Amino acid sequence: MDEISVRAKGNGFTLPELIITVAILAIIMTIAAPSIFKHLASMEANRIKNQLESTFSLAKAESYIRRQNLLVCLSDAGGRCHRDSDKKILLFVDVNDNKHFDVQVDYLLDEQNLNPKYSKLSLRVGAKRHYTKFWGDSGKPRGHFGHIKYCPTSSYNDAMYQISFNQGGIVRHKPSSTHPTGCA
Fold this sequence. Notes:
Layout: H1 3-11, H2 15-66, E1 70-75, E2 88-93, E3 107-113, E4 119-125, E5 132-134, E6 146-152, E7 161-165, E8 171-175
Antiparallel strand pairs: 1-2, 1-5, 2-3, 4-6, 6-7, 7-8
Protein backbone atom coordinates (compact mmCIF):
# COMPACT_ATOMS: atom_id res chain seq x y z
CA MET A 1 0.00 0.00 0.00
CA ASP A 2 1.22 3.41 -0.80
CA GLU A 3 1.18 6.35 1.59
CA ILE A 4 -1.85 8.12 -0.03
CA SER A 5 -4.25 5.17 0.32
CA VAL A 6 -3.24 4.69 3.98
CA ARG A 7 -3.96 8.36 4.76
CA ALA A 8 -7.32 8.31 2.93
CA LYS A 9 -8.44 5.22 4.86
CA GLY A 10 -7.72 6.81 8.25
CA ASN A 11 -9.57 10.11 7.64
CA GLY A 12 -13.10 9.03 6.69
CA PHE A 13 -16.10 7.16 8.06
CA THR A 14 -16.87 3.64 7.10
CA LEU A 15 -20.36 2.88 5.81
CA PRO A 16 -21.49 1.19 9.09
CA GLU A 17 -20.21 4.16 11.12
CA LEU A 18 -22.10 6.58 8.88
CA ILE A 19 -25.34 4.56 9.12
CA ILE A 20 -25.10 4.38 12.93
CA THR A 21 -24.38 8.14 13.18
CA VAL A 22 -27.38 9.03 10.99
CA ALA A 23 -29.63 6.64 12.97
CA ILE A 24 -28.57 8.21 16.28
CA LEU A 25 -29.23 11.73 14.94
CA ALA A 26 -32.66 10.63 13.68
CA ILE A 27 -33.56 9.24 17.12
CA ILE A 28 -32.42 12.43 18.84
CA MET A 29 -34.49 14.58 16.44
CA THR A 30 -37.55 12.37 16.94
CA ILE A 31 -37.29 12.80 20.69
CA ALA A 32 -36.52 16.54 20.58
CA ALA A 33 -39.00 17.67 17.88
CA PRO A 34 -42.17 17.75 20.05
CA SER A 35 -40.39 19.77 22.71
CA ILE A 36 -39.05 22.20 20.12
CA PHE A 37 -42.47 22.67 18.51
CA LYS A 38 -44.12 23.15 21.91
CA HIS A 39 -41.57 25.83 22.76
CA LEU A 40 -42.06 27.58 19.39
CA ALA A 41 -45.85 27.54 19.89
CA SER A 42 -45.46 28.99 23.39
CA MET A 43 -43.21 31.77 22.06
CA GLU A 44 -45.79 32.56 19.36
CA ALA A 45 -48.59 32.74 21.93
CA ASN A 46 -46.60 35.22 24.03
CA ARG A 47 -45.61 37.30 21.00
CA ILE A 48 -49.21 37.64 19.81
CA LYS A 49 -50.46 38.38 23.34
CA ASN A 50 -47.95 41.23 23.62
CA GLN A 51 -48.83 42.59 20.16
CA LEU A 52 -52.56 42.61 20.93
CA GLU A 53 -52.11 44.21 24.36
CA SER A 54 -49.84 46.86 22.91
CA THR A 55 -52.24 47.69 20.07
CA PHE A 56 -55.21 48.07 22.43
CA SER A 57 -53.21 50.23 24.83
CA LEU A 58 -52.05 52.39 21.93
CA ALA A 59 -55.63 52.67 20.63
CA LYS A 60 -56.87 53.84 24.01
CA ALA A 61 -54.15 56.47 24.37
CA GLU A 62 -54.17 57.72 20.76
CA SER A 63 -57.96 58.05 20.54
CA TYR A 64 -57.99 60.22 23.65
CA ILE A 65 -54.94 62.30 22.69
CA ARG A 66 -56.16 62.85 19.12
CA ARG A 67 -59.80 63.30 20.18
CA GLN A 68 -60.75 61.02 17.29
CA ASN A 69 -62.55 57.72 17.12
CA LEU A 70 -60.14 54.92 16.20
CA LEU A 71 -60.89 51.42 14.98
CA VAL A 72 -59.01 48.23 15.75
CA CYS A 73 -59.61 45.14 13.65
CA LEU A 74 -58.08 41.85 12.63
CA SER A 75 -57.40 41.87 8.91
CA ASP A 76 -56.46 39.54 6.11
CA ALA A 77 -53.36 39.98 3.94
CA GLY A 78 -55.25 42.49 1.75
CA GLY A 79 -56.08 44.77 4.68
CA ARG A 80 -59.79 43.82 4.82
CA CYS A 81 -61.22 43.69 8.36
CA HIS A 82 -62.87 40.43 9.39
CA ARG A 83 -63.70 38.82 12.73
CA ASP A 84 -61.72 35.67 11.98
CA SER A 85 -58.76 37.11 10.08
CA ASP A 86 -55.38 36.54 11.64
CA LYS A 87 -52.75 38.02 9.35
CA LYS A 88 -52.58 41.50 10.89
CA ILE A 89 -54.09 43.76 13.51
CA LEU A 90 -54.82 47.29 12.31
CA LEU A 91 -55.33 50.52 14.24
CA PHE A 92 -56.68 53.32 12.06
CA VAL A 93 -58.78 56.46 11.78
CA ASP A 94 -61.86 55.52 9.75
CA VAL A 95 -62.22 58.77 7.80
CA ASN A 96 -65.14 57.61 5.61
CA ASP A 97 -66.83 55.77 8.52
CA ASN A 98 -67.36 52.52 6.58
CA LYS A 99 -65.82 50.34 9.36
CA HIS A 100 -63.09 49.01 7.03
CA PHE A 101 -59.59 50.20 6.32
CA ASP A 102 -59.31 51.92 2.94
CA VAL A 103 -55.72 52.59 1.91
CA GLN A 104 -56.43 55.74 -0.09
CA VAL A 105 -58.81 57.28 2.45
CA ASP A 106 -58.16 56.17 6.03
CA TYR A 107 -55.17 56.99 8.21
CA LEU A 108 -53.25 53.93 9.46
CA LEU A 109 -51.71 54.48 12.91
CA ASP A 110 -50.39 51.00 13.59
CA GLU A 111 -50.18 47.70 11.77
CA GLN A 112 -48.81 44.57 13.39
CA ASN A 113 -48.19 41.35 11.47
CA LEU A 114 -49.56 38.43 13.46
CA ASN A 115 -49.41 35.45 11.06
CA PRO A 116 -49.83 32.68 13.63
CA LYS A 117 -48.50 29.25 12.64
CA TYR A 118 -49.80 27.28 15.60
CA SER A 119 -53.16 28.95 16.26
CA LYS A 120 -56.07 30.95 14.95
CA LEU A 121 -57.45 34.26 16.19
CA SER A 122 -60.99 35.52 16.36
CA LEU A 123 -62.37 38.88 17.44
CA ARG A 124 -65.58 38.72 19.44
CA VAL A 125 -67.28 42.07 19.90
CA GLY A 126 -70.95 42.78 20.59
CA ALA A 127 -73.49 42.76 17.76
CA LYS A 128 -71.18 40.59 15.60
CA ARG A 129 -68.96 43.52 14.68
CA HIS A 130 -65.65 42.93 12.91
CA TYR A 131 -63.96 45.84 14.71
CA THR A 132 -63.83 47.65 17.99
CA LYS A 133 -64.02 51.41 18.24
CA PHE A 134 -62.13 53.50 20.76
CA TRP A 135 -64.02 56.77 21.24
CA GLY A 136 -62.13 60.05 21.01
CA ASP A 137 -63.98 61.71 23.89
CA SER A 138 -62.85 59.14 26.45
CA GLY A 139 -60.33 56.76 24.83
CA LYS A 140 -62.59 53.88 25.82
CA PRO A 141 -64.32 51.22 23.72
CA ARG A 142 -67.76 52.25 24.98
CA GLY A 143 -70.33 49.82 23.59
CA HIS A 144 -67.58 48.02 21.65
CA PHE A 145 -65.98 45.89 24.34
CA GLY A 146 -65.12 42.25 23.74
CA HIS A 147 -62.11 40.01 23.30
CA ILE A 148 -59.78 38.31 20.88
CA LYS A 149 -59.47 34.55 21.31
CA TYR A 150 -56.20 32.75 20.71
CA CYS A 151 -57.03 29.11 19.90
CA PRO A 152 -54.38 26.50 19.09
CA THR A 153 -54.55 24.55 15.82
CA SER A 154 -51.80 22.05 16.56
CA SER A 155 -51.60 19.24 19.10
CA TYR A 156 -48.37 20.55 20.63
CA ASN A 157 -49.76 24.03 21.33
CA ASP A 158 -51.61 24.09 24.64
CA ALA A 159 -51.82 27.88 24.96
CA MET A 160 -55.41 29.17 24.94
CA TYR A 161 -56.35 32.62 26.13
CA GLN A 162 -58.38 35.74 25.56
CA ILE A 163 -57.20 39.31 25.36
CA SER A 164 -60.23 41.18 26.63
CA PHE A 165 -61.04 44.86 26.72
CA ASN A 166 -63.89 46.27 28.77
CA GLN A 167 -65.91 49.48 28.59
CA GLY A 168 -63.39 51.15 30.84
CA GLY A 169 -60.69 50.46 28.26
CA ILE A 170 -58.85 48.06 30.53
CA VAL A 171 -56.99 45.35 28.59
CA ARG A 172 -56.56 41.97 30.29
CA HIS A 173 -54.93 38.67 29.44
CA LYS A 174 -57.20 35.81 30.55
CA PRO A 175 -55.72 32.30 30.35
CA SER A 176 -58.12 29.47 29.54
CA SER A 177 -57.40 27.88 32.93
CA THR A 178 -59.20 30.74 34.72
CA HIS A 179 -61.50 31.92 31.95
CA PRO A 180 -62.50 29.15 29.47
CA THR A 181 -62.09 30.26 25.88
CA GLY A 182 -64.39 27.70 24.30
CA CYS A 183 -61.70 26.83 21.75
CA ALA A 184 -62.52 23.58 20.01
